[in-house]
Amino acid sequence: MSSYFYSMILVFILPFALSAFFSVFWFALSRINPSRFKETYKRSLVSTIFIFLYLFYPIISSTAFEGLNCIEIEDKKYLKVDLSVECWSKEHTPIALFLCIPAVLIYTIGVPLFVFVFLSKNKKRLEDKEIIIKFG
Q: Is the pLDDT of residue 136 over 70?
């Protein structure tokens, strides 16, 4: 498997791993110092996850599209970011079908759709201090 695919997998997994780490971090803080963090645990966790969503959105989106971007060289198509990988070969097809296309659908389309639905449902509460603190 190409080293590019390993870096692609890392890019896709990193936001989830960081979110899991900070979930444990905020939970531990709420248990260690309940008087300070018990009420803010959920708000801090949601804020952290939203920061990661926004921070990694361009990276994951571009990486997902790069994994599908092929160019033709001498009647064969190769992955533009790694010309050692022939597009839709045994090596590329599983990565494209199970990583890149779901990333485009879930992350590139799903995240903005989720934010739009959330904002639409809460449009009357967007000025509330709690909403601003939690979602920015």
A: no
Task: DSSP for 40-101, please give it.
Answer: THHHHHHHHHHHHHHHHHHHHHHHHHHTT-EEEETTEEEETTEEEEETTSTTHHHHIIIIIH
What phi, psi does 80 have (nearest 5°)?
-60, -35
Q: How far apart are CA 136 and CA 115, in angstroms?
A: 12
At 17-41, the pLDDT tens digits run 999 999 999 899 888 988 887 778 8
Instruction: Residue 107: name the closest of 37, 53, 70 by CA.
Output: 53
